[in-house]
Design a protein that fits this description.
By secondary structure, the protein is mainly beta. The protein has one helix at residues 59-66, and strands at residues 2-5, 8-11, 43-48, 55-57, 75-77, 83-85, 87-95, 98-108, 115-118, 132-135. It contains one helix and ten strands. Strand 7 (87-95) and strand 8 (98-108) form a beta hairpin. The longest helix has 8 residues, at 59-66. It is globular.
Length: 139
């Protein structure tokens, strides 16, 4: 479980947290389906690609929503060792005031603005201009 605070990211095991589980120098990486805790802000989709499978949102909005700019330097590492810039977040997707989906997204720093897509089952027609994403807890 990772929380973003004014002093930086803090982490603990989501289940079974206990004293002595972490030591200085432990190497951890963000895994699929991480989520942000205790954030009440949101980010608005400013653009979607032609088929609606990828969205773009504002840099400042995402940073405010997460309470940190860690997303700009985070790295996703797959089990096979492949790495690329980005991070997984668990979010809710809202359209016209109604929640239409929740699940993991892959958020990546773009050349001008961050981009995102559903981490599982990304496809056409999923994102539209004006959609809103908010942090969500994993089920």
């Amino acid at each position: 479980l990772i929380s973003f605070t004014g002093e930086g990211p803090l982490g603990r095991q989501a289940d079974g947290a206990a004293p002595g589980q972490w030591q200085v120098g432990d190497d951890i990486g963000l895994q699929r389906h991480c989520f942000v805790e205790s954030s009440t802000d949101s980010a608005t989709v400013l653009a979607a690609d032609v088929d609606g499978s990828v969205f773009t949102c504002g840099t400042e909005e995402i940073t405010e929503m997460l309470g940190s700019n860690l997303w700009q330097t985070a790295t996703v590492r797959e089990r096979n060792g492949t790495q690329w810039p980005g991070m997984y977040l668990f979010v809710e997707q809202w359209r016209d005031g109604s929640k239409i989906w929740s699940g993991p997204i892959l958020l990546r720093p773009g050349a001008a603005s961050p981009t995102g897509r559903r981490a599982d089952g990304s496809g056409p027609g999923q994102w539209a201009l004006g959609d809103v994403i908010t942090p969500a807890a994993m089920p």
